[in-house]
Amino acid sequence: MLSSSFLAIVIAFALRLTSSLASDxxxxxxxxxxxxxxxxxxxxxxxxxxxxxxxxxxMYGLSPDQxxxxxxxxxxxxxxxxxxxxxxxxxxxxxxxxxxxxKYFYKVGCLLLHEFSDVFDFxxxxxxxxxxxxxxxxxxxxxxxxxxxxxxxxVLKEVADNNFDMIxxxxxxxxxxxxxxxxxxxxxMNSVQPMAARVPYMVDIGNHENIYLGSHYTERFRLxxxxxxxxxxxxxxxxxxxxxxxxxxxxxxxxxxxxxxxFTKPWMIVExxxxxxxxxxxxxxxxxxxxxxxxxxxxxxxxxKDCDATSSTIRIGFEETFHKYGxxxxxxxxxxxxxxxxDVYKNETTKSTINPPATIHIVTGNAGGPENHEIFQREQPxxxxxxxxxxxxxxxxxxxxxxxxxxxxxxxxxxxxQDVVIDEVWxxxxxHGSFGR
Length: 437
Fold this sequence. Notes:
This protein has helices at residues 4-23, 152-160, 183-196, 211-220, 261-264, 269-282, 309-325; strands at 27-33, 40-46, 57-61, 69-72, 74-79, 87-95, 103-110, 115-116, 120-123, 136-141, 166-169, 201-203, 231-234, 237-240, 245-249, 252-256, 290-294, 329-332, 338-343, 360-364, 384-388, 392-398, 403-412, 417-428. By secondary structure, the chain is α+β, with helices and mostly antiparallel strands. The chain has a seven-stranded mixed β-sheet with strand order 15-16-17-18-20-19-21, with no helix packed on it. Strands 12-11-10-22-23-24 form a six-stranded mixed β-sheet, with no helix packed on it.
């Protein structure tokens, strides 16, 4: 006969196991480009508060019924710094040996408990030496938020219709990820899962992610392709540096920068600048002719006082380097509006979109956010081609080595306008490289 103490142990273990089975359900699933085009990173969360029964597994393959590849990954716990000390587990895996431009199916979860997500699909990155003849399609925006995500319905449909190969969110995510002891961050990540689990979701840190040493950004997006070899200190300890990193996608070299370093981590300013120069120095324009740099805060804008001292700081930090190495576009958010500029260098422009002799600057920070429309309080400068305070998002299509098409789509429920292209331009660059030549 079993003793009462032994029965108590068995019952306690059973309850713990039952609790784990319920809380190990994967959520907040999102993909990211890896450092190698034959790989794809995936990260997800479980609300198990670091239960040791949990494991980290991704199963993937060429058919939803034949997920023949099984990869084990790493996991870690993240505790919000608020009073509730809300703790969740994060899991990261790297899917390997992917064929270029191929549709794969996958699910994530715990192999030990056989607790898995639904099956999702994604398309692997194109071969960098032989990109597809079809255009590369990117959805780009910043400053979306969870409670006022004006563009969400539209961009979810874009992904469902297979219109995006990659998404770029240039900072300020949930307003804020740490709100409600981090649970708002959980809600935001779940709200974007239907697209982020199918299309690589690449990011920048924004000023609304600065709290707690940027911990929510650093930990929730650990899957970014870390290329600096540096680490970042967080409230959770030390993590790989995903505040500035780079990756290739077909004909495009994307370089992520942290504009927040200038205002929160000034001791890293020189380090980031040196890293940026080394990254640009290594770019082979015969393989990735287009160079797109992105950060949260703009170097140029025209709406209000943010466009004075703050933007001046960004210009001092980056503009000469952009010019020296021929950065084609600098994309930012922060201002809750849209402003597409011509080529700009030292506040001067030739108003050219054909072989522009300087970097083209674009602000696309009007995806929603916690505020109403951020109106333009100043006259439109000559360097600006188009601007609006209407909610919306941007599309960038790279057709070949010389032609890039840019669009702004308005999704503004306040104005009763939905999914209307209000700005578009062809950018032609036949002479990729330094503007200082």
